[in-house]
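Input structure tokens:
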């Protein structure tokens, strides 16, 4: 299983409807190519992990990178994993201040559990995903505000 984690900065005037459209399109596209993953949006930043066949995931990231609703898209980590971590979701989504598509309670529990056990994970891309979620949500807010640069 191939995984890719990236982060990007949303454009200044992104709306909740824009984000919903991203998620809707992702769910439809991802299920057709057996891609799973999770998209987190908070404080003007996206963090996403994609899982699936390498060529499909890389092709999808290339398309994502061209999307004008965000900037500074960069890969944080990519590599082979023993299994999917979001196997039941074509695209889990959590906007920590707005809406969620998928089982939000399950995603929150999973994030908390993964963050508590991050040092025991063996897959680097998975570690990078949860580490960046932790940084986004933490008190020190590595990703400060939507007006700061990455």
């Amino acid at each position: 299983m191939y995984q890719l984690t990236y982060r990007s900065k949303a454009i200044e005037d992104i709306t909740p409807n824009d984000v919903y459209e991203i998620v809707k399109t992702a769910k439809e596209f991802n299920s057709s190519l057996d891609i799973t993953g999770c998209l987190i949006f908070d404080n003007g930043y996206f963090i996403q992990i994609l899982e699936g066949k390498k060529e499909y995931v890389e092709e999808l990231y290339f398309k994502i990178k061209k999307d004008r609703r965000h900037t500074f898209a960069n890969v944080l980590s990519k590599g082979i994993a023993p299994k999917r971590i979001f196997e039941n979701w074509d695209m889990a989504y959590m906007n920590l201040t707005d809406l969620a598509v998928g089982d939000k309670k399950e995603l929150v529990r999973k994030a908390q559990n993964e963050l508590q056990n991050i040092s025991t994970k063996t897959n680097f891309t998975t570690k990078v995903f949860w580490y960046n979620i932790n940084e986004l949500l933490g008190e020190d807010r590595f990703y400060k505000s939507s007006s700061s640069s990455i």
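The CA atoms of residues 8 and 46 lie 5 Å apart. The chain has one domain: 2-137.
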